[in-house]
Amino acid sequence: MLEIKKKTNGKEMIIGLAGSLDTTTSSNLEVVIQSELSNIETLIFDIIDLDYISSAGLRVMLLAQKIMNKQGKMIVKNVSSKIMEIFEVTGFADALTIE
Question: Roughly what angle, to the nearest 10 degrees, separates helices 55-71 and 81-90?
Fold first, then answer.
């Protein structure tokens, strides 16, 4: 199960993720990314409560990064050591801006 919390402040959007971002749930996040980023210049993923991310979840994060490269910036915050390990093994630690 994945919980997605969105907060928009002007041209900034914060997306909080809790639970598992996997094959079953990644399409829910993809819908948000495809439909709600048009006027956003700063996208922040707060993943403090994200327990698991699969390759499908990584693909959606990459999609968000590609969109934001064209119109602003994307930051990933509050990454647990477990998720950071996945980012490092897959090379996403170098591709994403992680704070």
Answer: 80
Which amino acid is it at 92?
F
Selection from 73, 98, 97 nearest residue 13 by Cα: 73
Beta strands in 24-88 (DSSP E): 42-53, 73-77
Give the integer Cα–Cα distance in Å for 50 and 43: 17
Q: What is the pLDDT along the chain (99 residues), one digit of tens a residue?
A: 999 999 999 999 999 999 999 999 999 999 999 999 999 999 999 999 999 999 999 999 999 999 999 999 999 999 999 999 999 999 999 999 999
All residues at 6 or more sequence positions from 39 whose CB lies less than 8 Å from its CB, including other chains: 11
pTM: 0.95
Q: What is the dihedral of CA 75, 56, 89, 96, to 10 degrees?
A: -20
